[in-house]
Amino acid sequence: MALEQVKGYFRSRLPSLGFVEWSDGFNFTNIPKTLLNDRWHLEMGRVTNVSQNQPLQLRWPVTLRLFKSPGRDPRTLMDDAILSLDIVLADLLTAENRVAYSDNFKNLYLDSFRLEQLGETNDNGVIIVIELSALIVMAIS
Question: Helix axis angle, 74-93 relative to 4-13, nearest 10°?
Fold first, then answer.
């Protein structure tokens, strides 16, 4: 199935980088503080049609959130978050990783990224928010 391969790609790449999936499909704010470090959560956006030709080409925006542990000083935490961002982007966007994954999962584009504090009054944790777009090809007969 072509659509399930989007989340599958992240599940195949992020564990080798030391990140564990937060399994709640919609809510990423309920991760316990004791489990927060090096978790990831994927929010699936609205799929749009890229092409009217056969096969069907779909663009699926996804928001990947990576969580870095509270309890460190903010400067070290930010440095660690930037290093993690660099490593994750390099791995996810490397051409051979994307191409080798699946015939239907054609590409992954970086749209934007940002670093957010854990809460308005809590700068002891960082959320790395990465906006990506997956290109999927579905064979329609």
Answer: 120
CATH architecture, domain 4-24+35-131: 2-Layer Sandwich (3.30)
Measured distance CA(107)–CA(98) in Å, rounded: 6
Query: At which residue do the structure tokens 């490593």 appear?
Result: 87
Whether 75 has a pLDDT exceeding 90, the answer reads no
In whole angstroms, what separates CA 99 from the centre of its chain? 17
For tokens 């090809």, the residue is 137
The set of residues, in sequence order, having a beta carbon less than 8 Å from that of 101 and lying 6+ positions away, is 5, 8, 9, 12
Asked if residues 124 and 118 have their Cβ atoms less than 8 Å apart, the reply is yes
Cα–Cα distance for residue pair 34/70, rounded to 1 Å: 9
Strands 39-44 and 20-21: what pairing?
A: parallel
Give the predicted TM-score (pTM) of the model.
0.87
Break the chain into its structural domains and give their ranges: 4-24+35-131
Q: Could you tell me if 68 and 39 are in contact, meaning their C-beta atoms sit under 8 angstroms apart?
A: no
Q: What is the pLDDT of residue 59?
A: 92
